[in-house]
Design goal:
Layout (H helix, E strand, L loop, with lengths): L1 H8 L8 H24 L4 E6 L5 H5 L6 E7 L2 H10 L4 E4 L12 E7 L8 H11 E12 L4 H14 L7 H8 L3 E9 L8 E8 L1
Parallel strand pairs: 1-2, 1-4, 2-3, 4-5
Antiparallel strand pairs: 5-7, 6-7
Length: 206
Amino acid sequence: MKKKIWDFWAKNYSKLWVQKYSLGPTRTKVKHIISSYLSIEESTAMSLLDVGCGTGELLYELQGVKGLQRSGLDFSKGMIEESQKKNKDIKHYVLDVQELDKIERKFNIITCTHSLPYYPSQSDIIKKIHSLLEKDGLAVFAFASGNNWFDKIILLFVKLTTGPASYPSDKDFKKLIDGLFQIEKREVIKIKPYMPTIAVYSLKKV
């Protein structure tokens, strides 16, 4: 059922209104975080995996970053097909996120934007991401945060179009990453007052 929902949205995903006030601003923030990280590391070759890459919008917007080897993963074949149209020369994995451990390599950067709430076992997925990340790598998580009653009410309506989801509060997320990651920075995106708060976390391995 979940795959059918995301396959359904695939062809028109880039046209949805949430791109302007939620997904687009998140990508801008994540791109800035990645660019800052790369400028500090001063490496000529970095690998990135976008977990839950959807139609590949973030991967496409990162195409101009020199020396960045991009990869994307999504369980929706429809989403991956759309990503392949705009990201022709990068590696795509059509895998359920629970199968992350089938990937036999590590990455310098792993991004997971707006997909964590839809994973049934968030703790297991974070552990798998931890295992795939290089020792000094960067993990970036971004998701609508259920910190207060207003956000929770708004997110009830979001679930009507995307299916079951569990939006972690700051407290919940800190418990999920305890012993695995430390928070380097937490930033907030809220473009419009009627949009839920989006938390963006930059993490390093403990």
